[in-house]
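ligand=pyridoxal-5'-phosphate
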Amino acid sequence: MTAVATQEIPLVDLKAQYATIRDEVRAAIDEVLESMQLTIGPNVKAFDQEFASYIGTKHSIGVGSGTDALQLAIRACGVSSGDEVITVSHTFFATVEAILYANARPILVEVDEKTMNMDAAAVAAAITPRTKAIIPVHLYGRTVDLKPLRQIAQDRNIMIIEDAAQAHGALLDDGKKAGSGGRVNCFSFYCSKNLGAYGEAGSITTNDDRLAEELRALREHGQSTRYYHPVVGYNARLDEIQAAILRIKLRRLPEWNKRRRELARAYEKLLSGSGVITPEIPSGERHVFYVYCIRVPGGRRDDLRKYLGERGIGTQIHYPVPIHLQQSAEFLGYRKGDLPVTERLATEVLSLPMYPELTDEQIDRVTTSIRDFMKGN
Ligand SMILES: Cc1ncc(COP(=O)(O)O)c(C=O)c1O
């Protein structure tokens, strides 16, 4: 009998999702092309309103990427040279890059081992008279508790800027949506995100009318009206095609997030007792599982990754090198050993396939392979 090739299970399957919305997306793209209104037109305006209403803020300002969102948010908050901004080292590089664009100093703090998110006690210990902002990152889709951060920030005139790039639709500790709790908040719609464009896109949400107006100007070269530039801004516009696609996908986001949570529960059940550490599933909707990240203790992570790869199962490491140990961050003066929890997580974390279209059979295959490996097969 000839062997039947087993189908690959990618980390993220964008084609599977596209197949479910293809006709609608094509019609929307066609409409934009027929209109030839390609930037800041009806779709951007409508998406800004629809996304603000979904998040529960007065404003959403669509921009070119999540990195743009962070850069503009930090600038609009008045962060500048000599200021300190506290964030985590266990994050995607862009969080820290955006602080550096403002010539401010990133102060990188430790994460809590269980949640893998910002440790509020570490933030409290890092406050100085130069602290201007705190950027909690809702990593993997799990929201950071904002209450203790608000207590630290209040009376000190320190701003909270949420990096909600990985947490579309997740709930905060006050039951409101991620991206509604900071002075300004940032989202990425990078293609693999829970709400992903088919190119680059991002958004900044805020309840502050003055900041919203400033951000709308900043995304278009600082202009108030066309060709009048009271401030120097950026080219950080969201384009009409991406906005049209995001409007279609936003309508499905609650259902997709629900399926991600179901899949996380299935993973937890099927991996129980296997020897890997599964992520805690907080009650309610505090986690939207952008990434399903397990921990593999005992120095076996890389071997497990290789084993799964040989069986056609895609995985990723989010992230292999903490920011404070990146070559480009050497000038900040951090050393190995400065953030031990973060550094250990970097050697243990492994992200498994996660996307709403993942089937129960595929989850069975992934978890059976992990169990076989951990047993030593
Ligand atoms: C936590 C975090 N912050 C910021 C970004 C930057 O977003 P983008 O890739 O859209 O510029 C990302 C996205 O990849 C992210 O995951």
